[in-house]
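Example record

One chain of 774 residues, shown exactly as stored in the release files.
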Amino acid sequence: TLINVSEKPIPLGDIARIGIRPQAMQGLYLSQGQQAICLALIKSSDARVETMRAEVSQLITDFQAAYPEIEFETSQDQSFLLTYTIDNLKSNLVQGAFLAIIIMFLFIKDYRSPLLIALTMPVTLIISLFFFFLLGISINIISLSGLILGVGMMIDNSIVVIDNIIQHQQRGEPLLTAITRGTNEVIAPLISSTLTSCAVFIPLIFLSGIAGALFYDQAMAIAIGLIISLVVSITLVPTLFNLVQQRKPRHAEIGFLKRVKLFDLENTYHKGFDFIFRHQWGTLAVVLLILGGGYFAFSAIDKRQLPVLPQNETIVAIDWNENIHVDENRRRIQHLIQAAGNNVQQSNAFIGEQQFVLNRDMDMSAYESQLYLKLANTTALKESMRSLQVFFETHYPNASYTFRAPENPFMKVFSGNENNLTARVSGQNSDSPPTIEEMQAVAAKISRQLNISQSAIPSRQQYIVHAKPEMLFMYNVDYNAIVNLFKTAFNSNYTDNLKAVDRYIPILIGSEPISMEQALNTLFVNNRLGNKIPVKTLVSLEQSVDYRTIFGGSEGVFVPLNIEVDAKQTPGAISMVKSILGQSPGLDVNFTGSYFSNKQLMSEMGVILLISVMLLFFILAAQFESISIPWIVLVELPIDIAFATLLLYLAGNSVNAMSMIGFIVMGGIIINDSILKIDTVNQLRKEGMDLMTAIHEGGRRRLKPIIMTSLTTVIALVPQMLGSDLGAKLQLPLSLTMLGGMSIGVLVSLWIIPLLYYHVVNAGNWIRGRLKIK
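Predicted structure tokens for this chain:
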């Protein structure tokens, strides 16, 4: 190639070195400390996880066969997590159903009725899945958890129907008469019970935000299962019972179970009944103690949107706050991996700029990194995080870093990246933020007074080259000539592309790498007359530090400060930050974070609970045709909720969306026992029994169904409570709430409700008597 120099053709090679060299590296990926290539696979909305996982596995196998010299590794496989969790939930569903059937065998002690009740479970589940299909509900973590929660509830209606039929048989009634009367007697209370259970779900479906999205599939799963189980229990169960009883085998009862006597239910019930009525003031004191303990537990317990899930992985997002190149970034990351300790099982690092088209979260500069670490367990992870914090404070105190859990699909949808408390600091001029020096001073003061580790504010260091117009005019220098000179000096003077056979090679005019100071002291620019003028005569240099990112909101431009404090410390932290900002005139602050969304969630759930109680009251009032009796049933709710909250506190759990849902679901279930019991007592009183005898006899008749239905519901949750997968851990607060509420609820239904019923009826009779006298 020839160029024209003073009307003479000069070969380009005589005045420049020409060659092909690799482009300056802007980013890289490390796998286990070694440089690698990362390919991110993102599932489309209509793809199935199992299909994608199988095809990717087959693709990797094909690659390994085709390229044996290259190692292929799968990292952060979230499809495996979802598949494993769903498989575990399916297993929990089967185990819960099996345990519920065992409970029925122990109580009924013959194989016909328990098997008949057990038969209704798969029938209900299959029909429920059919309605899932019709309503477009998928089989996922949430809907499967709802089915597990509903397994014990699905057979409750069948237990009540069969037990009532057997009681009629034991009174000497013919088979068909016993079936007809036994079923008809309980249809009304069963419909009422199902409606009360479903009534608590209707408001929950309309919750906003995380709780609404989280609970929709679960609420629909439980409601569908309960309605179908009601229909099955009053249609299929009596029919099958008739067929089984007509061909009664010689030995219907299981002999060894007949001899097994865990405890005398009826004797225990009678003793407890007499004890409660003899010690009414003591009973009241115990109830008040439970209510007080529940109030204390609710005040002291941690409140959050979702339960804390155990983690053995973390992602460290790092901004070094220095203008470093990729090689230096890589060196620091490798030292960071060493500082994490010997318990690291897997490490991956995204260093500098990445080229993921569909993942905007990975847009990083050359001096940013994301480090993924996988350790053996939660304890090892916490130790490693402490070591990394010490490493940053010791070697890179100006670095900005955060730890966060890898976002699996569930956490991506529901948890978000919101911190517990974020202070949005803005200046008097809403169009520009406070100076970075001022914000660094404020952040340091907040860190000292709250005794927390405050990460550095992300900033950037930059050179600003100012051209001097008067000097350009004096020396007759073109402004663009200076711009091109600096581009050439720093290897960014792009001219064109060289078109090769299968690719484009960019053509750059550059020089050996030099520093900014060297450029000012050694570079010369030709003016319009061809004279060489020193660059330092024509420009001035300014070095500045500014914000890396500008944030804007309704208050204008602001600087976010993430304040890492517990929920209990948040009100004090807010007051402290306001006080600190009050000492800096011209600064204003607003607060956001999960602390406020958690409060909103608790408020919404409180309103939902109130609406649910009102719906329950109207349903009960319609059934009993009374205004006073529904309050007898509903007074059970605060006792059960208080005890469940106390259990959550003692178990070290939190009040969150799942436990709040558990409160409401438990409330809709546990009052079913009281509904059936009061309905039986009312029927006995209509038959002529006196009040005390009817209460006592009604409790005896409903004793076994109350115990069985409560046990089957709680026992069905045991496999899920003992599980270690994501679905089980997510549902643990709900399961604990159900366990606590159902346990105390049985005792309340057996003994406290009869006591309240006795006094309410007597009070009503006394009032009616006084009105007649007047």
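Notes: Residues 312 and 379 are 8 Å apart (CA to CA).
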